Amino acid sequence: MAEYLEGRENQIVTKGIDSHELVGGKPSVAGSVSQRACVFCGSRVVLYPIADALHLVHGPIGCASYTWDIRGALSSGPELHRSSFSTDLREKNIVFGGQDKLYQALHELIDKHHPKAAFVYSTCIVGVIGDDVQSVCKRVQKEKNIPVVAVMAEGFQGSKKDGYKIACDALFSLVGTDESMDVSPLSINILGDFNLAGELWMLEEYYKKMGIQILAPITGDGRVKKIQNAHRAALNVVQCSGSMIHLAKQMKEKYGIPFIKVSYFGIEDMSDALYEVAKFFKDDSVMDKARELVKDQLTTLIPALEPYKRALQGKKAAIYVGGAFKAISLVKALRLIGMKTVIAGTQTGNTEDYRLLKTICDDGCIMVDDSNPVELSEFVKQTGADLFIGGVKERPIAYKLGIGFCDHNHERKLALAGYDGMLNFAKEVYETVTSPVWQFVNRSTPFDNE
Ligand code: SF4
Q: Considering the entire predicted model, what is its pTM?
């Protein structure tokens, strides 16, 4: 076992060797350069894909650097979410307060862009100087007659996961405020798909073939009006439970909408996601259509995966992603293409998630919660992983260690959900793992000499 910071003992477990349980959901240990992002980042990840809303970051310009380029959620219509607006607080505003600047910025932007709603993100410095963001939002809401939602997401309050909850509260304030859309009795909301590379459109296609209406996608390709009508769907289907379970629970409590948790990644989980929805509606014709769809897809997909499986047989993968459901699906999908997972970690998993993850990992797999670059690098060297699957912060770790990398997070431009997504995933993994470039890389690292 590699060295790790004191206090992190029960956040790292090697299956088959350690007997203690992995405890997830703990605050980061002081002194650890955690891979977790801040509260503001978490709230923005969730709300940002709502394409016809104004997203205004109240704070210094640095916080607003997290733009559409990093989180490229696609829209089939309006694209206001692609513009990154900030009140750009300077020293003078920080000394004398930034409320006036916020009020003016909201008026100016709403007049210019006519959004259907506005989200105002409060960042660290605003929490420190104490601007009354909520009262400014309330005032502008009255004057402009659109929802203006204060997202009190000061980065220092906790971690990215706390930002998810704050974003869910912001969404919940919109749900139930409109009843003008046509709603089918076979309607669902999809919670927690962010349409980074058009995945939502694939899902729409599948559910349409089954006769199911997606009333509100929350929040990929999101629209304010659909979210306002979302309380009228028959079922909430939660894909990213880490980010959206809070909203699903709130909607169940207030509107009685049941929810199921699914994953759209990998053949098994994608098929289960369709069957679970069909089962819910207790309609034989819906189930028959789901079976037909899965059969059609697998007839072409299974033979297409074969060559990749042969080439990747026995290769080893490290996974470090945001949520545990994604990690679980990835372990299964990697197994399907002949690969073994040797490291499985997440930023936001809880103890229950890790229990589940452990049941599907092989003996020898290192499971880790809230890791940091030094630990991850050590684990990769120790296990001899050939591939790292992660996000923007893990990419340099993989490349510095001279191994393949697959982006399964914010920056990717390739759809990895659904049946087509599984084939894209196999191709991408194959291309990076077997790339001839790795033979020219020195796999020793600066840590080797320490
Ligand atoms: S931690 Fe604070 S200052 Fe840094 S990006 Fe997050 S909100 Fe902005």
A: 0.90
